[in-house]
Structure formats: C-alpha cells, structure tokens
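Lab notebook, bench 4. The sequencing result for the construct came back, and we need a structural model before the next group meeting so we can plan mutations. Quick request posted to the team channel:

Model the 3D structure of this chain.
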Amino acid sequence: MPPTAAELIRELPLGQLVDHQFFALTATEEPLAWARETVRRLLHGQADQDRIDDAVLVVTELLTNAIRHAGGPVSLTLDLYEKGVTVGVVDRGTDITALPADVVSFLAGLQDETPGEADVRGLPTNGRGLYLVSAFASGWGVEPAREGKVVTAAFCLAGSAA
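Done. Here's the predicted structure in token form:
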C-alpha cells in the first residue's frame, strides 16, 4: 500500500510548510485547464520548468482519474514547502483497492528493457496514470478521506528528486 500524505512529508526533504491552497473544482467549467494553469502560476519561480511540467502532468492525471472514475465533487490542494510541494486530489471514491499495488516494481522492470523493445502487450488497460504519477513525482500515496479518498503526490523542488 502506498504511504499516506503525512508519511510522504516525513520521508521527503520538503522543509517547512510555507503556503496551503485549497480549490473546490465543482463549479469550474474547465477543471483540467484551470488546474494546469493554477499549478504553473503557483510554482512559477519555485522550481525549474521541467519540475513544474512534472507537477502539471501529475495533477492532470490525478484529476482525470477522479473526474472519470469517482464522480461527484473533486477538490485540489496544493501545499508549498521550503523545498517542495504536495498536490492532493480529493474525490468521492472510496475504493482504494482498485489502485495498482505494484507500481514501483512494474516501473523497475521496464528499466531493464532495451529502449523500443519493451513488450507493451503486458501493460494494464487501465490505471496507467498512476504509473506516470509514480515516475514523475518524488513520492505518492492514497488514503481514505472524510469525503472519499485523497491521492497525494509530492515533489522535491530543490536538489535531487529524492
């Protein structure tokens, strides 16, 4: 089972909390475009462009999953730390067992493949967004929330990606 948000924050060198932002996306007409722009704006000057792009990709994946599979209201949290950021997507879904249990092992197995020769026939037909989350975030986790569940991804923005 992936770690909780609190465990991610303890394990990664994020530093002290600097800012907390909460956004209810229920009435947002274009939530994915709005979220991408908001993440870019809030992280501008906090990290290099590649790391901001990583965070935008992950937020897009998490929100897409929440909107597509959980139904109901979705919210986004963005916590800025001295040396990192966490993004959390809260949705009405309660089934955290549907998450791929072995994301890290799957990605590690692909590293052994010669580029262009990986057998994609063995890839799962759904849940691939979390493979991207695992590849681009410094860490991620899922846990039950009062409203349903929250999937949190953390990014180290200073120094190594931990």
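The longest helix spans residues 49-70.
Will bring this to the meeting.
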